[in-house]
Amino acid sequence: MIYALKNIFVDVVLLAVSVFLTSCASSKHAEQTASQESIPSHRDTVEVEVLTPVRADTSHALSMKPAQPSKLYTVQIGAFQVKENAERWQKYAQERFHEPVRLTVEGNLYKVSVGTFPTYEEAQKFRLDIVKRYGDEYRDAWVAELKE
Question: Which residues of the chain are modeled with pLDDT < 50?
């Protein structure tokens, strides 16, 4: 009977050890599975484009000519030798037109001109409009280039 008890005892101990070892192995397996599920198995990849700085070529910049100023045009409506006559005509034009009216002196002449136009064509159109509208008063008007 002692022999039988020893066998039972040994069987129980072996059973307990095998259960213990099996449970440890399954815990370890479960732990590995859980950690694999929470951590992605792949890593994100990032592509990086390496940029090389480029220097501007300024070797020809020194030889470039400065930009030519744009020409501007005006419509000259009169030229007078007497300053008071030119001033009277200037005042009359200022009351009539919605364009700037200038009085310039060139030699012994006082010139009265109307408007500042970016193109010859626009100045010519204005000249034709005032000749059509006011007739003989401006029939001798002409387009002139504005001087600096």
Answer: none
